[in-house]
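ugh ok fine here u go
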Amino acid sequence: MKLIVALAGASGSIYAARFLRALSEISGESYLVVSPPSLRVFSEEYARPVSKPQDILDFVNSTWNPKVQHNFQIRSFADIGSDIASGSNQWDAMVIVPCSMKTVASITHGLTDNLIERCADVTLKERRKLIVVPRETPYNRVHLRNMLSLDEAGGIILPASPGFYQMPKTLDDLGDFIAGRIFGLLGIEHNLFTKWEG
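structure:
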């Protein structure tokens, strides 16, 4: 499976970090695009300075020591002319985790001012899977309308709302729940949390 993974500015770096950790242990290749606000939020939420996307990957590897089998190719947030800005290139799905409401609004209205928005636009027009993980609360009517419009356009809205039936014991468990739900939508088997059995 080849993915585009994007971090788009919202709070919830734990969801991105735990998804990247889990994905790194799966054989494959993905493109990574990180917005400047995401670097700032990641630095603040993990109390560790990161200034570029590679710093996030390094943090994931050094913190959890995953058995890395996945190749991440970094693309610049500002490079609207990148190879992945065109539908002539192939990827299976795009995951934006976490996703800011600004990014949701831009995608919904067809605005493509940066590579994340452009890739999302291409993903939708090529009828590929787009999974968006918004991290905002509460939602106002603009947020709700934009998310509904994105759903109607073919996107999948997966709110950063972890379940608790798996009896989480750490914050990482909550991050793994969302990572597992993303994996489920991608059709990837996982053991990131115990599935509900009734």
